[in-house]
Each structure stands twice: as structure tokens, then as C-alpha cells.
Design goal:
Blueprint: E1 4-9, H1 16-28, E2 31-37, H2 48-61, E3 67-72, H3 77-84, E4 88-93, H4 96-113, E5 116-121, H5 131-139, H6 150-160
This protein binds 4'-phosphopantetheine.
Length: about 160
């Protein structure tokens, strides 16, 4: 049986840090599904449709094929995991604070369906990169080129620059 991983997140936007986690996860498991999740508590910079496209375009630009990208507009992550037959949820952690944040979610998800969560520790050279900092740069005319792939950069330019 192939081992299937789901890597979920808001990905608003998908950064080079996310790309690194996706690439490393795809080397560990037979199949990878990236789930772009709508968070009703957040107002995103990019729509769910745009975020899915940006993940797909970033993967294509990086030469990563065979990774499925799906949108989770509502509902529980564990239900999506059941639907796609996932064995594991993968999260990236940039710090102990991130692990603390993931801890209760991993426990609840395991209580709900038994699914395990695996946490990959970010590459040190990428551990300062976050979607929220990219959003701040984007909204204030900062240079995002080091932090996101070209497709994301282009959409940021289109949205925020004249
Ligand atoms: O990138 P984020 O915003 O930190 O990702 C958080 C996310 C989307 C993975 C989390 O909020 C989530 O799993 N949402 C789906 C709804 C759900 O299953 N909630 C219960 C989690 S215990």
C-alpha cells in the first residue's frame, strides 16, 4: 500500500519554506497531497483559488511533479485525510513555538481518526520565513523575491504595485 501524506496549511501565500517542506515530504512518502485550507477566522490576502494555483505553479517551477493540490473550503482536515486515504499529516515547524502550536492539533486529529502527525523541522536558512511576514512586505512594497517563488512574486506585483 502506498503511504500517503497530507501537508495542510493556509499558504497565504506559499513560501520557499513551504516548498522545502513539500519537497522533503515528497521524498519520504509515496504520495503527497497539499491541502490549501480556508480559515474562517482569517481574512486572506489571496483567494483560495489563487492560493491553490500559486502552489501548483510554484511546484511546477521547482520541477516537482506528481504532487496533488486540493482546496479545503470547509470541514475538518481529518475528513479530507480519510477521503484521500492519507496515513499521515505533515506539518513544518520553524521553532519550538510552532511545535507548541501544532501539539494540540496533532492530539485532537489523532483522537478523531487515529491519524498521526509528523513534524518536519525547517531548514535553518529558511526558519525566519513566514507567510505573515511576506504579506507585510507585499502590502508595504517590500522585496519578496527571496521568500516566494516567481509565480507568487508576480501575483503580488500585480496586486500591490501600479
Ligand atoms: O497555515 P495554518 O493557518 O497555520 O494552517 C492551519 C490549518 C489549516 C492546518 C488548521 O487550521 C486546520 O487543520 N484547519 C482545518 C479545520 C480543522 O480540521 N480544524 C481542527 C484542527 S484540530
Amino acid at each position: 500500500m502506498p503511504k500517503i501524506a497530507v501537508y495542510p496549511g493556509s499558504f497565504d501565500p506559499f513560501t520557499v519554506g513551504h516548498l522545502d517542506i513539500a519537497e522533503r515530504t515528497s521524498e519520504l512518502f509515496d504520495e503527497l497531497v497539499i491541502a490549501v485550507v480556508h480559515n474562517p477566522n482569517k481574512t486572506p490576502m489571496f483567494s483560495l483559488v489563487d492560493r491553490v494555483e500559486l502552489v501548483e505553479q510554484t511546484l511546477a517551477e521547482a520541477g516537482l511533479s506528481g504532487i496533488r493540490v486540493v482546496a479545503l473550503e470547509s470541514g475538518l482536515l481529518v475528513d479530507l485525510c480519510t477521503d484521500v486515504g492519507a496515513d499521515v499529516i505533515v506539518k513544518g515547524a520553524r521553532s519550538a513555538t510552532d511545535v507548541d502550536f501544532e501539539f494540540p492539533m496533532a492530539q485532537i486529529n489523532r483522537e478523531l481518526t487515529g491519524i498521526e502527525t509528523a513534524i518536519l523541522i525547517s531548514a535553518p536558512e529558511l526558519s525566519h520565513i513566514s507567510s505573515s511576514l511576506v504579506r507585510q512586505l507585499a502590502q508595504n512594497g517590500g522585496d519578496v523575491r527571496k521568500y516566494v517563488a516567481k509565480p507568487v512574486q508576480k501575483l503580488i506585483e500585480k496586486k500591490f504595485k501600479n
